[in-house]
């Protein structure tokens, strides 16, 4: 646990929201981006809004005995995975569970599907572009090799007008 996490935990244990608020003020000051500052602000607001429920387990033994996860899992997953039981593979059950949780957290599944489809379309386009670049560079190298190859006039040592013209075209001499 980080120092900030320990300080927040201590503030909750002491039931002193001022300590927790100071930790969040310092965290916001040192946040590296506006997005991080916003995340710190939202977390502080969440803790402030749920302060009574957060500190209740400090004094109430019964409040320490469980959590709401089982009820949420039952509510979100069982309606699809157990009320109409089918033979689910581990992979499909995992995907279904993640989709149900995404939907329960106010995620729009249609937007998610659209994003994934666009992402899948980008991958082939990038592969096509890379293949085109590879083929283009190969052809370019072939043409460059042919162009730079010694001409018959240059290879037999004759220095006539054609020899100088070819050298000039290739940029070898001024």
Q: Which outline best applies?
A: elongated
Query: What portion of the residues fall into strands of 2 or more residues?
Result: under 5%
Uncertain spans, ≥5 residues at pLDDT below 50?
none
What about the largest sheet? none
Total E-strand runs: 0
Q: What's the rounded overall pLDDT mean?
A: 75
User: What is the CA-based Rg, rounded?
Assistant: 34 Å
Class based on secondary structure composition and strand pairing: mainly alpha
**Terminal-residue CA separation:** 70 Å
Total number of helices: 9
What report would you give on this structure?
The protein is mainly alpha-helical and 174 residues long. The protein has 9 helices and no strands. The N and C termini lie far apart (70 Å).
In short:
76% of the residues lie in helices and 0% in strands. The chain has 174 residues and is mainly alpha-helical. The model has no long low-confidence stretch (mean pLDDT 75).
From the structure above, extract its key features.
174 residues, elongated
Please write out the topology.
Blueprint: H1 3-13, H2 17-30, H3 34-49, H4 51-59, H5 69-81, H6 90-104, H7 109-148, H8 152-155, H9 161-170
Helix pairs in contact: 1-2, 2-3, 5-6
């Amino acid at each position: 646990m980080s120092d900030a996490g320990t300080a927040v935990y201590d503030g909750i244990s002491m039931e002193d929201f001022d300590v927790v608020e100071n930790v969040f003020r310092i965290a916001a000051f040192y946040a590296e981006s506006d997005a991080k500052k916003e995340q710190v602000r939202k977390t502080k607001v969440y803790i402030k809004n749920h302060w009574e429920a957060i500190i209740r387990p400090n004094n109430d033994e019964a409040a320490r005995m469980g959590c709401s996860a089982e009820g949420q899992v039952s509510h979100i997953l069982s309606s699809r995975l157990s009320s109409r039981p089918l033979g689910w593979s581990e992979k499909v059950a995992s995907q279904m569970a993640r989709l149900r949780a995404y939907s329960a957290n106010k995620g729009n599944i249609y937007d998610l599907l659209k994003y994934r489809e666009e992402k899948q379309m980008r991958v082939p386009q990038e592969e096509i572009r890379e293949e085109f670049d590879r083929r283009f560079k190969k052809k370019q190298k072939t043409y460059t090799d042919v162009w730079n190859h010694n001409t018959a006039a240059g290879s037999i040592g004759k220095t006539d007008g054609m020899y100088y013209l070819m050298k000039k075209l290739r940029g070898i001499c001024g």
